[in-house]
Amino acid sequence: MTPQKDFFLRNIWYYGLPGSRLKRGKMLAKTLLGEPILFGRRQDGEVFALRDICPHRGIPLSCGRFDGKEVECSYHGWRFDGEGNCTEIPALVEGQTLDLKRFGVNSYLVREIQGNIWIYMSDRQTDRDLTMPEPEMDPPRVAEFGDRPYQFLETVHFPCFVDHAVVGLMDPAHSPFVHRAWWWRSEGNFQEQARLFVPSLYGFTMARHKIDIVTPMYRLLGGGRVPETEISFQLPGIRIEELRAGESIITNLTAVTPLSETETEVNFIAYWNVPWLGALVPLLRPFAKAFLHQDRRVVVQQQIGLKHNPPLMLINDADTQAKWYYQIKNEFFRAVAEGRKFENPIKERVLKWRG
What we know:
Layout: E1 12-18, E2 26-32, E3 35-41, E4 47-51, E5 65-66, E6 71-72, E7 79-80, E8 86-88, E9 107-113, E10 116-121, E11 152-158, H1 162-170, H2 175-178, E12 192-200, E13 203-210, H3 216-222, E14 228-234, E15 238-245, E16 248-258, E17 264-272, H4 281-306, H5 320-338, E18 349-354
Antiparallel strand pairs: 1-10, 2-3, 3-4, 4-9, 5-6, 6-7, 7-8, 9-10, 11-17, 12-13, 12-18, 13-14, 14-15, 15-16, 16-17
Helix pairs in contact: 1-5
């Protein structure tokens, strides 16, 4: 089976939202992959996710009330638990019986890991009669930090289809042009690079290496030592970069999540074991925000040209990671459609580019 040109992957974990944004006894509505979803956190701390539409008259459940255990629709007071089961229809009078199981709301698998809420977007959400299979994979997890939550988060919305956000953020040759700044890269500061890439879980990994261009930011983070870095990518749009300088570890997880066909959310999440770094967060946040908005600005500019549906002429080796992304995305789609195991098409290879 061949997928259409632009499509959302299903049967895979997506980044839903930071756990800190969902308090106990509260709910939060969000659109993911074009679907209306209601996230809630019960009073016991457990997180759930439901389709944000009441099956009675179609009003969003997020317009209603949540008592920390059940959601009550604002229109007629129908109530639903965190599994999507209808528990009460107030309009019924004595003697009127209905099988409330018929009026449930579709629910989603969710997991909360290291301060992040992940949601499994299945292709079976539209039929409650189908048994939801357990996912074959687990949500992404940052190594070395156990169950610790993140220490830094920045969220940016890109007005584009998810593929363009993913490819733009993994692009190794754009930094000297998009990220020109005194604190990161000066104009003309680029050189030839060669990196070993190996296949990894649902993606590929740039093997650990010393950073060639030690910017002021890297000097600060490395404490005078030249950091080493390893960067991995996995479907549907997860980039994990680990920086090591001696015993110091700083890891960022960038999660790209499609909200709709024209809007994508990028969450930049960081973890570290450097005690003094936390005190610098108020100073570093403006730089991180500026960095991400440089990527956003060029994507906004790109949309002007993409309106004319031009052919995209990707080259080797600078664009090979982009080619790999489309290859593994298509392979995942076909594997699900054919009911077979995913077979990673990526082979070990050294890529060279100037950037």
